[in-house]
Records
---
Amino acid sequence: MTALVDVVAVACLLAGALLCLTAGMGLLRFPDVLSRMHAGTKPQVLGVLLIMVGAAIRLHGWSASWMLLLVAAFQLLTAPVSAHMVSRVAYRRRHVRRDLLLVDELRSSGQDRLYRGDEPADAPPEEPGAALAESRERDEAP
Amino acid sequence: MTVEPAAKRLRHQLPLVVWLVLVWILLWGTWSWANLVSGLAVALGVLVLLPLPPVIGGVRLRPAALLAFVGHFVVDLFVSGAQVAWQAIGPGGVRRGAIVSVQLRVDSDLLLTMVAEAISLVPGSLVLDLDRERRRIAVHLLHARDEDDVARQKAAVLETEARIVRAFGSAEEIAALAEVAA
Amino acid sequence: MTAAGVVAYALLGGGALLALVRVALGPSLLDRVVATDTLLVIISAGLAVHAALTRDPTVVPVLVVVSLLAFVGSVSIARYIGGMLLKSSAGDGSDVGLPVAAEVREGDR
């Protein structure tokens, strides 16, 4: 019984470690910040979850195993948040390979001036409210 | 901004207190009354010193729908991990991505947050931006073969939203879901 | 058990090394943020593997700290760059105050 549990735990650890390796490879091979972000969040979150579960199984009985599950929960909560913050800045700074995009609806949908593709994505609109109202009018026109 | 009575504010923040106490007890790793009391003290201290806006609307739990959502979510998590990992290792590598914007139907801060978190964790999608007023969410797709594929992935985003609303939303929100779809 | 440990450490080490290469290559600050985040998470995974293989929970509190630090770090850098954007004077949205080499490499892709 204990042997079986150990096998499961070690399998979790190895699968998690493999996913961490693929995260590294993705970071190196993907072409722009946004796709690297995918590599940094997806296999990463799953890998850390698997490793934490494996470690929690191995440390069964110690109070520390609860802490490992807490780390896993934090990982699930925080990874999308940090990914979103970084990728939003990346899009606005145009660290995006537009030639690799099939469609880009954020650019063409004409939201407020901050999001409008090709002008300096970073330039603050003089009047954010007015810019937003104007773009909505234009949206509703056709 | 109106000042709420302290009791009402406390009731709004009850879920947060419960969560903070839970984290405190998990950090200590053992259950004891001393941990519970000190956790309560710390949680209340945090809430008084660092007040957060209350989560308005609240959440209802529907066990069956919640189970369906969690099941789908775990499957999605594994599938997405495997897909992205394969794209990182495989010979093809990543070819074309896409940025799409999807019209969501929920209108609650909490539910929108959960939708965004879930979408960021499922296959090949990453939330770029959220227009809170118009409820439009911009999603970056890691891999899009063609237009059909893009449409399919947009439908998947809406399905995720529907599952979350069915698990946590109020009756009106579920009705709104069906209304827009019809 | 030792064989599994060696394999797991090798995989994690490989991942960490690749993330380090990305930190070194850049080319932009945001790439480095993403890579550093990944690197920190791989480090916490390594700590967890160590705790699991030796059945020794001493490092677990460190793990909590490292994983939260990764989050706080990448969010604060993202906010910092976001604030930098608003004050960008170049007018074309390019990085300001970064080495020219990084700019050029970013530009000619």
---
Amino acid sequence: MEQLINDLKLQIKEALHLEELSLEDFDENTPLFGEDGIGLDSIDILEIVVLMEKEYGIRMSKPKEGKAIFQSIKTIAEYVQENRKK
Amino acid sequence: MGIAVTGLGIICAIGNDAASVLGSLKAKQTGIGPMRYLQSNHKELPVGEVKLSNEEMKQMLGVDANAVISRTVLMGAIAIRQALDNSNLTNSKFKEGKRVVVISGTTVGGMDITEQYFMQIKEDNALLPILEKHDCGSSTREMADLAGLNDAEVCTVSTACSSAVNAIILGAEMLQNNEADIVIAGGTEALSRFHLNGFNSLMVLDKECCRPFDKDRAGLNLGEGAAFIVLQKRPESEGIFIRGYANRCDAFHQTASSENGEGAYLAMSKTLQMAGLRPQDIQYINAHGTGTPNNDSSESAAIRRVFGRDIPPVSSTKGFTGHTTSASGSIETVICILALQNRFVPANLGWREQDEACITPTQGIDNISLENILCNSFGFGGNDSALVISKEQGAGSEEQEDKSINFLVQRAEATILSPSGELDGGTLRKYISSGEARRMTRLMKAATITSLKALQEAGVESPDAIITATAYGMLETSEKFLIDMLENGEETLSPTLFMQSTHNTLSSAIAIRTKCHGYNMTYTQGKDSLDWALRDARRLIASGKAKTVLVGSHDEATPTFQEFFRRMGKPVPPMLYSKSIVLTAVKR
């Protein structure tokens, strides 16, 4: 799980061009959306959807179902753990 | 004198001319169905295709079957020819001594052909000329020529899905300002794998027929087509007139609409104001109504803000045609004219269940007297425009236009000519935060920096209007998206790249940054783009519609793009060019 969380951190940082974010201020429980979090938006959700398919073979067809899954790196990791095809 | 519509032409999923479009509208017959002509893997997505092959269209136009011509151009030329025939102006007679201008709205331009040949062009010099017809401006020139208007001046505007309405607005303004005698304005857009996959990456395409304003709506269906109208200044009090119009900006997000529909609200309110009409004078609203959850609730909020409890019949006709993107504004304008002439309100196909957040659309009305119709057209980047189409020309604008006392002064100018240190490090941070910068391409950064520098120097926080000139638009992102699609297939493509591929990306990004809800326009007519932008700025200031205008000329190249020019033996364009000018009105 720890390995997966680390992988996801790096993959999300790269996909969303969060280069300036240091890995420390970006822990697995940091909210990805909203003002007290990283402040991502709907387009970022779509980029994470693409990432999930490319890296883990998970196809999500409705962006709505993503909202709950994409709360934090941890919630994403749990979802990937359960649903990954690769 | 009013701006009269003296001819119209249309080709779309529900018919290849006005008579057949009218027939389908009255019979409530959709044109959306399985993909037949577009060569995409996404067969699961229904589309609103024009029911003609490129070869059939070439035959209709009498051009060589082997000629490589974009579908965008073919459909546009057919619609322009129809509009000219319909206007009773024979080519030879009407052109004599008259200033004829063709104004088209498109974003895809020649992309349908480029995506087909791109990989071969990389290898084969004989195919290089195809690329010269890729950009929007070239496609408009070719289309005007095919329609027999070789002598006409041409102009292309590209504000994504509101392009065609902005083309009509520009035409009306040019006539009002005595810069033209006859304007043929509208828009054209062919389906391409590029934008089908782009919209798919944004997850806004419905796998069923779209259901605008319905509770369970799940997105849009893409369509294609072209429509053009002939505009002339006429003294008659009755006919078909473009009575009011406005172009405003939501200045909220690159692809999403604000919850309260600010841009749409402003566009509709200003349009009514210019037409000298009250909300209760409108008998029908042709909504933008794409069928996406976001557009329809935002547009409904805006309609409620303008019309209160007494909302006239509203329908989106995208359930018939699909969303014809850049052409939708003129296709729907023609549909409104047909409704006005034939006394009916088109149905909102697909609607089943009320959504609290949405207006209740009409299922169609026959035998209704229509005087004034409001037609909405919105685009990416919050480029929101509206028109009022009326039987009477009206008394004209209520706004007092103070034409004599304004003249133009250039206040400030800023330029970035190459990717220098200004795009990272100190200068960048001075103008753009790291959060903002993370998604910006080089051209976006350069355009933002030169704009903010010029505004700062001019002492202007937020301009009244933003106008961008760009010959090729967002090349870097478009090329990345295209190559990814061609090399890796039509899956897992980046929504960010597509979102930033439209020409109006720059104008709208600057509007968001400067919180400018005013006029927002993008010209893409090759090397003449900046000239068109400056003419527009001058018109806005002279007519008192704006006091401060930010005009930008922004273009970029990529290594691949430069290589094409080298192979053609042509001057190689610079990697980056960004110049911003602030123009202000000064009282004499």
---
Amino acid sequence: MKRFWKNASFRLKFGLIVTLFFLILGFVIYFVPHVDPFPNVIKEKNLPPRIPGIEKLGIFDGTENGVMKYKGSTANEYHYLGTTSQGQDIFWLLIEGIHNSLTIGLIVALIGTVVGVFVGLLSGFVGGGIDRFLMLVTDTFVVIPSLPVMILMTSLMKGRATVIMMALVLALFAWAWPSRQIRSMALTMKERDFIHTAWFSGEGVLQTVATEILPFTLTWSLSNFMNATLSAIASESGLAVLGLSPANLITLGNMIQWARNYNAIIMGRWNWILPPILSTIVLFIGLFMLITGYNDYLSMKRGR
Amino acid sequence: MKFWKYLGLRLTTWALTILIGVTFIFFIPRMFPSDPVERMIGNMESLSGSMDPAAKEAMRKSLRIQFGLDGSLWEQYITFLWRGLLHFDFGPALMSYPTPAGEIIARNLPFTVGLSMCTTIVAWCIGNFIGLLAGFRKNKRSSRILEGIAICIYPIPYFILALVLQIIFAYVLGWFPLQATIQYNNGTATFIATLLKASVLPALSILLLGTGWWIISMKSLSGTTSEEDFVLYARYRGLSEGKIGYSYVFRNSILTQITALAMSLGGVFNGSIMTEIIFGYPGVGTLIQGAIMQSDYNMILGCITISIVAISTCTLIADLIYPFIDPRIRYS
């Protein structure tokens, strides 16, 4: 671990830290007991941010243009990022959004990578007619524009989709690219000596694939997994902006869409619109740096 | 002779790709329980009270024909392929009944194609130029800074960047309108002026993201090429840096980028849809959004069919011209 950290580039470290930070926000902080972001009784709307401790410095102290907004029943409350025009706590809305976006991203990446590796290995090793058929289907999925088809499917489910259905729709386009890559890896690997040795020593196809090939594809699959997570989160938020994400599912994209719908930009409610936008940007840059840093790290290790 | 074989094979794949894609989008709506005709009649009834059963049946029948939902599944499929794929006739658009959906798409398509084509080509040129410089002298500080900027821009999703640009340039600075407005009826000059003004922000957001990607990929490509033995040999021969950069590094790395350009078109199309929606730019993206809002399936299917055909064709063209550009590749 220590050696890994010493050899890691700045990019890899930065990416790891940012990704870990978001994982903690989404899967640890998320479970901290907190106020329900959807209150039954809408109390104070459009509250500015107020953070304990920092408020003494004169920023985030719950005032807007010098007027204290936290009064009456909310006098002792703290909303770290304020509340929306619907009286929802923005901070916990954001945490919930990060949690759901990451969950969808991870499910899609898992399905896409597993199916992609399976199809790629199958078509690379079995060859012949199966290979040609599978590659035709794969190529079709690589070429057809994914967003319009996802739009079609989600618009048919309009609002009634669950997280799992959403993930399945996104996964439909997540397997094609990895399976193409894995196939070409399998093709070159088929000719290597150690595979011939395995075959000649009487190992079956399944056995060879499981013990000799899979370990080789693992590092690549990990990098693909992160990539797929990133693009799944991006596609989901794209669909959310179109109003096609399930209405009761809070994701980063949905949060942005609601803020847009309630005119947060025109009203200048920056504490509402900016947190999800900035979180998405930072998360994506972090993930991307993690991916490229990890790939560089791998090629450096191979070079030594 | 080999060329014709290659062409035939490539054309077959092209046709099969389109066929599979279109078959796919034909069957998806039929796998879902919701029926657009029943939904439309339901909507109508909720607006204007219940209808006479006979009138309702007649209406159902005529709507089924217009939606291409009459007859067996097989007949529907053949009709869809015949009318939609070969004649781009997708039936009337419900958004602006009875104008055919194909006509409206044809009106909006040039905006999307123009926007994404121009920005993609400009981004490709700028990005590859900067990427080449950055990769060729990769240990210079300026190269690292340029790559750093590219890495921070590229991963941002299209619509997020569009939103950020909208907030900065249209809301805070007020240089551009929040939503695109194009005047069609006040003469060509006004049309072009308003079109350009409406296109600046959408084009900028696609351009920034595209350029970011080409910088990153070209830098890594030309970085590896610069370390090849033949470049080292050219250095020993005492050739000028410019000559090495152009004839040795650029010409070898640009080939990969040409294929990559064709492969990226699908992504650009997706991105341009999102960008258009954010800015209200009158292209296919805005059309799709409107069609979703009003459950206009003829229009949605039309937009998707045309985009599948367009993108597969672009990929085909790129594949066909590739061997002309790269002498190392033979048709095979």
---
Amino acid sequence: MIKAEIKHRFPDFALDVSVEADDGLIALFGPSGSGKTSVINAIAGLLKPDHGRISIQDRVLVDTERGIYVPPHQRRIGYVFQDARLFPHLSVKENLLYGQRFVSDGRDLGPVVDLLDLGQLLERRPVKLSGGEAQRVAIGRALLCAPQLLLMDEPLSALDARRRDAILPYLDRLHSESDVPIFYVSHAMAEVARLADHLVLLRQGRVTRQGLASELLSDPAAVPDIGVREAGAMITTHVAQPDAGDGLSELSTALGTLLLPRLSMPKGAAVRVRVLATDVILARERPVGLSALNILPATVETVHEGEGPGVAVALASGSDRLLARVTRRSARALDLTPGASCYAIIKSVSVAPQSVSASSREDQ
Amino acid sequence: MFGLGDQEWAAVSLSLQVAFWAVLVSLPLAIWVAHLLSRGDFRGKQLLNAVVHLPLILPPVVTGYLLLLTFGTQGAVGAILAQFGIVFAFRWTGAVLAAAVMAFPLIVRAIRLGIESVDPKLEEAAITLGASRWRVFTTVTLPMCVPAILAGTVLGFAKAMGEFGATITFVAAIPGETQTVPSAIYAFLQVPGAEASAIRLTIIAIVIAVAALLLSELMARRVTQRRVAP
């Protein structure tokens, strides 16, 4: 359990947030300038807040009321910066082992090297690494200090799309194989949706919403905070048939069978699939003669009208929820009101490979 | 030509000895002050900066006279130190003090540039990895400014070798005790027929200065190469 209440006045900006989350991966999502980095800097001790109380499990790091302020180097909080910040005068191996000079109970090098595939890089100098490699080393360096919490500040944003896709599986592994809670700052919803257990939405120094990622992502009322083009529900499911013919894989969800482009996961593997709200078409009757392969029966749960021409519709079927974004005109024409039964249509090819990731949770 | 006389030998070895000790003594203090000036945030920082630079802008004779007033046997500090048997006036140790004071601002400036070129973000990263401020300094900041420290050392050494005004004012030019190469050259020029001695010392001064410069370049290059090597 991580609790952070932080109030701080900057010359041109006021931060006033209260975050409370169970362990796992907690994503801080918001536009640039919303105060995400300041929040984790306060947790790391790189920013001393005017007022605040920060605790991890039962360990109080900051309590301005009681005059508690643990110095940053004694906090045991790992920090992976946007720019890897490797020490240029040390080799990769020396960088990895840097924190071990100060802690007696650091982790063993071997497993971390394996987890992040660093074996080939150990003798190199940081200047000879690519951006993605440097970031993997930075993650390993932080992990080897055996931190109680790992902070990651947009660790992928300095990388190009290809490198980002190359490093995401490592983050999946880090998340599922290590029990360190992670605070992950990002303004890219694709990353957040793929990784987050808990989601905190920030805007102008304040928390607009927070909660379980699976619930918040499929909450139509949260769509304005997430962004209409970024909103989309997360379906947690498992692979029913990796090879369902024609280069497709079959997933079994509470909504029905979902056919997606071929996945590399084995049969039975738990996966998370993000379905963008703009990729879902709704129909009141089961359509025929349609190219889209996934036609899933569902019931309208809530309809959220924003200020624009679109409305967000939450659909439920069993334990799974879907989010669809349609025009207000269509919603009226189809009479989409809570309780209405309809069909959600998802083109298989509209779900990008990056939208599918291994799930750490076995809540099927 | 290179048959050095006793007085010339004494001047050369004294100069090397003085410059060596002057740099050795001022280096730790210079690193500390350079760090204060580049990373510190405290009242009186500008005053400290001005005091450090004073020997650079004052006429050396004035600095020497101030040293005499302060550290002379009758001086405020000198009188106290004398009770403990520490005497600077007219001793080779006084020449070390004068050279150290004169070289100090040059060493500080060089090292300060080096510290300022170390990205504070790297120091932040070190803190999050468990390093205290002191350990950040010794494991990140200091190793990263090795080239600057080498540059400062050579500059300080050259300055200490060449120091004349403050030294001769503070400790005079006693052959074998306080007569360094510059004051020996000056003395030889006052004596008819001693030009050969003056020229020999001049050549030696040039050789030592160039050798020190080349050595530091070589060491700095080796440090940088190690950093970019695979």
